[in-house]
UniProtKB/TrEMBL annotation:
Keywords: Coiled coil. Residues 218-245 form a coiled coil. The keyword Translocase does not apply. It comes from the Bacteria. This is DUF72 domain-containing protein.
Amino acid sequence: MIYIGVTGWGDHDTLYQPPISPREKLSVYASHFPIVEVDAAFYAIQPKSNVEKWVKDTPESFKFIVKAYQGMTKHMRADIPFETTDEMFEAFLDSTTTYEKYGKLGMVLFQFPPWFDCTKENVQYLRYCKQQMGNMPCALEFRNSSWFSDVYRNKTIQYMKDEGWIHSICDEPQVGTGSIPTVLEVTSNQTLVRFHGRNVHGWTKPKEGNWREVRYLYRYNKQELEEWVSRLKKLERKNDNLFVLFNNNSGGDAADNAKELIDMLELEYKGLAPRQLDLF
């Protein structure tokens, strides 16, 4: 089955008309899509009280793709706010128990930064991450092209298969070492596909000022989405579950593109949250 959603649920204004309070947004979001990425978990390990609310605001079949905390993925240049790395992983794992309790954990996404290249040291760290996460389903997404160079591509895919990593396939600008190609390989019984847009200028903009406002400023056109229809159908045949997330929301385009792709694939999701009806 192909499940389509977007990253986060707070900024997709086209879903919330007329405007509603932030506390209501997830329940309304869940009337449109069956999955969501919890990007807030990247910035801070979330308290269980937050997770309790989120799982209760969503239907029984709803799934969360939880982004790994930035300290776990080497994004933090300074020291991590924990005594040890083991303690950091323990805190993150503890925060995910509620998703598991309700059967709503789709996977944890480890997205590594552009400076995390293919080296022996980094391969060892990936192995450490997987050991810390135990049997929890974990997706792996790179941002450095060295992992898929001619020399390492096949070895990278085989490593993910051997270690049980879910492959996070990306559609993103191709701008050198700071991005990865679209590699349509399956490494487990689940696969994640993430659409970051194709805004080359935004992707290469220095990370200062309003860089987040333009990095994912892109709207996929019909032809670009049609390219993915056949790709997704082929991937679906190799997976129990195929999760697809749109992250191109600097201009508010992610939700609209996600709905377009759902229509193109003629998908109908059962068990969504009931949608409120307009009076007129």
